[in-house]
Each structure stands twice: as C-alpha cells, then as structure tokens.
Amino acid sequence: MRARALVVGESLVDVVRTADGAESEHPGGSPLNVAYGLGRLEHAVSLLTRLGGDAHGRLLREHLSAGGVSLVPGAVDHLPTSVARAQLDAEGRAAYEFDLEWVLPAAQLPAELDVVHTGSIGAAVDPGAGAALELLRSWRGRATTSYDPNVRPAFLGSPEEALRRVESFVEAADVVKASDEDVAWLCPGEDVVEVARRWQRRGPALVIVTRGGEGAVGVAGAGTLRVPAPPTRVVDTVGAGDAFTSGLLHALAEHDLLGPAAARRLRALRLDALEDVLRTATRAASITCSRAGANPPTRGELAAS
C-alpha cells in the first residue's frame, strides 16, 4: 500500500561536530526526517512545516524534493531557518543545542489522508505545538494518527509539566512511538513497559518503545511483544529513531493498517503481525545507524535487509 501521509513539525539544519572536531551540515528535525524516510519508502508524503528563504532553507527544500516529499504551501517565511547543533561523542551519540523558530503555517490540507504524524519539538513548543495537537485531534477517525514525543528537555520545563502535554498527544494518537530515554525522563523511576501499557490504555491502538541496541517493545490490545535489534556496526545514531518511525508507518501500510477503514484491524493487531512490523522498523533504524547522518533506507534497501 502506498500511504497518503501528512507529517507536521519542525524542519532544521543539523550542524554536526564529531568527537575529533570535524563539522558538517545536514537536513534535520525529527518530523522532516520522518517525512523524508517515508518518501524514500515511496509513500505520498506532504510536510507541514516552516523554514526560511535563506541558504539553509534552500538546502532543506532540495533535500525534501530529492526524497519525494512535498512541502505544504506557506512553509517558507521571512524568518531564519532553524538550526540544531549536534555534538557527537566517541560512540556516535548526539547531544543537541537548538536555535529554533516554530509556528504552524495556516494551510489548505488534503481532503483525504491515510496517516497524520507529529512529534518532537513541533509538538512541544508553542504556538506551533498547540496547533499541532488540535490538528491531530481533528484528523482522529479520518486518518490514522501517529505521535513520537522525541523528548528535548531544553524545550519542556519540568518532567511533570512535559508529561501532561505528552499525554494529551498520546490520547489523540492511534500509534505512539517513544524511546526508553524519552520515557525515563518523563516518568523517572518507572518501568518503561508499564508506562507503555498505561499509555496504550489511554487510547492508542499501539504503543512502541525503542530500546537502542536492545531492540523495541510493542504494546497492543493482543499483548506485549519484544524484538531484538539486528547486529549493526554503528557509525552514528543521528536520525535512527526517525528512521524507526518511518519504517514503522511503512510496515503498517504494508499490512493495510493505515487509514480510517483500517482502524478496527489496527486495534485487533495480532502479535505475529506486530512482530513483523517491529522487525521492519528496527531494520530501518539499523540501516540508518550504519551510515553517517539521518540517511534512512530506500524501499529497496529495506526489502533487501
């Protein structure tokens, strides 16, 4: 199935400095990465975002075009394109600092969609975050709604305040993907699988927690399932979580589990189908970890992995 997807959230340029001091610039922002990943997997993707008319904005537009992603009209404004500065440690893990402007442009959206995804800073920083939440709520029942908190503590205040906002998005989503680091920051001291189960009871059909090199765990109505991560030579982890998300949505589309007509099937997801979905998503993340930057797999690369 070729899904019709709308991704909502920030676009920015990652300025990446490695442990040895080398610096490079890459397109980034979790929602942009998810949209790009879905485009490379040959889905019909529109990105509702904002970026500037500057050189960084041109870099992002060219990148999205090359990945088959359409910008929703009104994305380009007079403000500078947002920038994230990522410092990689010796093991390839990234720590970020941001220079960000985030508003949600007024836009005419498609009449029909299979999936609407949002998350990260775009679901955390007002005024854009509030608009993103209302948009997700408005599409619930008309499309599969998807959310990834992708926690950035610098934008979130206290964990208690952040959790209230995160759970408002959880309640508006059919599919939630979070990392174990997200859950540990939001719910310190709690078992991440128990948090996933609690979130699943708040409304989503499916809640998935990624666990880095340990793989992922999925919670659905049929139960809880863990899958390991495939063996991977890690170059860096930039964009791995976003590749997991695009791989997850791709796998759900392959199982015909996206869109309003699939809502009942998604809620009745069997554990064997959930295992295939999780293994597909973990393969997408591992491919991205095996090469530099947020470079998700194509459909052909994922199928061959």
Characterize this entry briefly.
With 305 residues, the protein is of the alpha/beta class. It is 36% helix and 24% strand.
SSE layout and pairings?
Layout: E1 4-8, E2 12-17, E3 23-28, H1 30-40, E4 44-48, E5 51-52, H2 55-66, E6 69-71, E7 76-77, E8 82-88, E9 94-99, E10 115-119, H3 128-139, E11 144-148, H4 159-172, E12 175-179, H5 180-186, H6 192-201, E13 206-210, E14 216-220, E15 223-227, H7 240-254, H8 263-267, H9 271-289, H10 299-304
Parallel strand pairs: 1-4, 1-10, 2-8, 4-6, 5-7, 10-11, 11-12, 12-13
Antiparallel strand pairs: 2-3, 8-9, 13-14, 14-15
Overview of the structural elements:
With 305 residues, the chain is α/β, with parallel strands linked by helices. It has a single domain, classed as 3-Layer(aba) Sandwich (UDP-N-acetylmuramoyl-L-alanine:D-glutamate ligase), CATH 3.40.1190.20. The protein has ten helices and 15 strands. The chain has a nine-stranded mixed beta sheet, with helices on both faces. The protein has a four-stranded mixed beta sheet with strand order 3-2-8-9.
